[in-house]
Design brief:
Helices cover about 80% and strands about 0% of the residues. The protein is mainly α. α4 packs antiparallel against α5 (about 65-90), α4 runs parallel beside α6 (about 105-120) and α4 (about 35-60) runs antiparallel to α7. InterPro entries: Haem_Oase-like_multi-hlx, Thiaminase-2/PQQC, Thiaminase_II, Thiamine_Salvage_TenA.
Length: about 220
Amino acid sequence: MNWSTNVWKQIQPIYNRILNMPFIAELTDGTLPKEKFKFYMAQDSHYLEHFGRSLSLIASRIENINDTLTFIRFAEGAIVVENALHESYFKDFNLTDKGSMQPSCHHYAHTLKSTATLANIEVAVAAVLPCFWIYREVGHYITTNLKSVNNPYQKWIDTYGGEEFNTLVEQAIKITDRLALNCTKAQQNLMTDAFITSSHLEYQFWDGAYNLRTW
Ligand SMILES: Cc1ncc(C[n+]2csc(CCO)c2C)c(N)n1
């Protein structure tokens, strides 16, 4: 079994907890209170900047030059494309000031940056993979369970449920599996730990927004 199939099995309890979060249920039926979505968007805007920097660090460290190019594109996607989504939401929801980073976002963003800088490259790549993979799965889940026609969060849903995003995720999984193939079992276990930690932090990110958790 390849590394990714195995790790995805391992995070099933976390993934199922994510699918059962009120944030996801209310995003799906469009009833999520605006102030919670605004909190999420503002925090995510901070997150994306740090995430983009983490991807750029990985791009510069990864050995295969084609992988460097792929990670440069991921970084660009995080900063340019995703920020466009946020900007349009900032307008739609009258959000002018994103404020400072709050605990869930701060923890996640800085964990990714230190991992991207200090950990072995395969561990750094494994740490960013849940950002792609969990969002794709959640995007598909929401798309298949959509109830309301006039969902105010439709743009967000379309971004992550779409085919374009799916292609990026497939590329990210493929690179990570290739790196894992050249690793010892001990190194693969460190990759797995990093993937699991980021999956927990994805959960915490939504939980922090739903509960409007501040310092
Ligand atoms: C907390 C949090 N985690 C993951 C994503 C999803 N995401 C953001 S950028 C990017 C890659 C684009 O190249 C992906 C998958 C998010 N928005 N917020």
